[in-house]
């Protein structure tokens, strides 16, 4: 670089301390063949205003959520975000804070963490929640390890239906393989895991599996008969880990009331931006009997010696606090700022507001499906669905995408990569933000591509 804040005298003094003669001597360990041996090929200097215009022109080449109608979901959703959330998250005391190890250092942080846990429990119907995790995939993977550690041998494998999110399946597979455990992906029929199919698998190997994962809704958007699946799993001593959409839980029966052993999921839909797929946060809930085996942080409420309410970090069975051999997980932090955004979102909306968001998404999704069917598309799987569904396109997928993009519409997720049998199929997600005009633009693209 042609600019350095250090004077020649500064550089000389630093080199003398290091016992070197020139700046090049600092890089003597780098083989000559790997060095550039010339100045960087940079354009001439410009003014600050010229640079701002150049960067703005480059940024405008990117597609973003404010200029496109997004019908893509698969775990990350284009939802309305109240202005209060980014305004509050950008405050220095939140943006730069870190969950304290000395609980008395920040009662405010621990209070909202405790409130976050409480709200997540109200949605899931479970008994104890941690202070969030990195994302839904890591929460699912940690749930697999927790189930395996508590179930013990010979239950040394996890059962995943192929209707679980493909990336989540990969994360779980990576975690369990690293620990020497097994995993089986169960092929399903008609986009759902049937209780009789699960029963047949478990009947053949009654002691092989520690847990089975169930999507609620599943990756194809279908609301499966989770209660029957949980009962089938329990019949064979297998844990049921429910992977839930927190917004859908505003309408669906909480999985805790259906008998789930663990409930995990991705929380991005609770007031967080899509942000190219993250960061979001994972939520993790369990039964009180298993609280000491939960990964991550847990905030608790207590009373001090004067009877005043206070908040503390409790049951910190992590590597930083106890011997590594006895730690429940090597996860040592969480996405606290993202969890705070979700806490603000749930506080602003309340139970009624969150239910209205879910109802609007449900209604929009069913209207979109009706319009797409009128354009020649066919729904691939039957069964009740919340805000996502799979359709087979009447025309080429590539042409549909091209026409949709011409109308500033991102039409959905092509499924052929993860599900080769679904070559010309789209996973379409419809949130409360989508308008009738945007739905009709998508239907137009589908119809035009067919003709």
Distance between the termini: 57 Å
Give helix and strand order, one letter per element, not per position: HHEHHHEHEHEHEHEEEEEHEEHEEEH
Our count of domains comes out at: 3
CATH level-4 homologous superfamily of the largest domain: Type I PLP-dependent aspartate aminotransferase-like (Major domain)
Shape, please?
A: globular
Q: Give the CATH topology of the largest domain.
A: Aspartate Aminotransferase, domain 2
The biggest beta sheet reads: 7 strands, mixed
CA-atom Rg in angstroms? 26 Å
Helical stretch tally: 12
What's the architecture of the largest domain in CATH terms?
3-Layer(aba) Sandwich
CATH C-level label of the largest domain: Alpha Beta
- Give the strand order of the largest sheet, numbering strands 1, 2, ... along the chain: 2-8-7-6-5-3-4
Percentage of residues in helical conformation: 25-40%
Helix/sheet category: alpha/beta
Uncertain spans:
none
Give the total of beta strands.
15
Strand content: 5-15%
Mean pLDDT: 92
Provide the descriptors you would attach to this structure in a database record.
15% strand, single chain, Aspartate Aminotransferase, domain 1, Aspartate Aminotransferase, domain 2, seven-stranded mixed β-sheet, 451 residues, four-stranded antiparallel β-sheet, alpha/beta
What's the quick description here?
This protein has 451 residues and is of the alpha/beta class. It has helices at residues 8-18, 48-59, 84-89, 92-95, 107-124, 136-151, 166-178, 195-204, 226-235, 336-374, 397-406, 436-450; strands spanning 69-70, 128-129, 157-161, 182-186, 209-216, 239-244, 262-266, 282-286, 298-303, 309-314, 378-379, 388-392, 409-410, 413-414, 425-429.
């Amino acid at each position: 670089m042609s600019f350095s804040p250090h004077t020649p005298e500064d550089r000389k003094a630093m080199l003398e301390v290091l016992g070197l003669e020139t700046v090049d001597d600092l890089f003597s360990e780098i083989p000559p063949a790997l060095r550039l041996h010339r100045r960087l090929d940079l354009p001439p200097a410009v003014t600050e205003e010229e640079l701002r215009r150049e960067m703005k022109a480059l940024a405008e080449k990117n597609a973003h959520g404010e200029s496109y109608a997004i019908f893509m979901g698969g775990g990350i959703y284009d939802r309305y975000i109240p202005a209060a959330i980014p305004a509050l998250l950008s405050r220095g005391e939140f943006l730069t804070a870190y969950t304290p190890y000395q609980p008395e250092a920040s009662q405010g942080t621990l209070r909202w963490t405790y409130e976050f846990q409480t709200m997540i429990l109200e949605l899931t119907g479970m008994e104890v929640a941690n202070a969030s995790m990195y994302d839904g995939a890591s929460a699912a993977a940690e749930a697999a390890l927790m189930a395996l550690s508590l179930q013990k041998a010979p239950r040394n494998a996890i059962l995943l239906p192929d209707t679980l999110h493909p990336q989540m399946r990969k994360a779980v597979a990576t975690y369990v393989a690293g620990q020497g455990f097994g995993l089986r992906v169960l092929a399903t029929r008609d986009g759902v895991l049937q209780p009789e199919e699960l029963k047949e698998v478990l009947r053949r190997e009654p002691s092989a599996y520690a847990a089975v994962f169930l999507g609620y809704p599943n990756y194809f958007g279908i609301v499966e008969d989770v209660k029957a699946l949980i009962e089938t799993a329990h019949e064979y001593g297998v844990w049921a880990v429910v992977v839930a959409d927190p917004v859908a839980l505003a309408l669906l029966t909480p999985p805790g009331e259906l008998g789930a052993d663990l409930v995990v999921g991705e929380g991005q839909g609770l007031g967080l931006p899509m942000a190219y797929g993250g960061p979001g946060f994972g939520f993790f809930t369990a039964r009180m009997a298993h609280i000491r085996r939960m990964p991550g942080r847990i905030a608790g409420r207590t009373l001090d010696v004067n009877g005043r309410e206070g908040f503390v970090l409790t049951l910190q069975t992590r590597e930083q606090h106890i011997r590594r051999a006895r730690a429940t997980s090597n996860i040592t932090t969480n996405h606290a700022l993202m969890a705070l955004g979700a806490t603000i979102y749930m506080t602003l909306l309340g139970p009624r507001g969150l239910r209205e968001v879910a109802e609007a998404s449900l209604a929009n999704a069913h209207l979109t499906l009706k319009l797409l069917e009128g354009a020649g598309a066919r729904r691939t799987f039957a069964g009740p669905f919340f805000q996502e569904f799979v359709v087979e396109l009447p025309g080429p997928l590539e042409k549909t995408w091209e026409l949709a993009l011409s109308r500033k519409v991102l039409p959905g997720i092509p499924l052929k990569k993860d599900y080769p049998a679904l070559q010309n199929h789209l996973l379409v997600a419809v949130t409360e933000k989508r308008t009738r005009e945007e739905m009709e633009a998508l239907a137009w693209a589908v119809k035009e591509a067919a003709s």
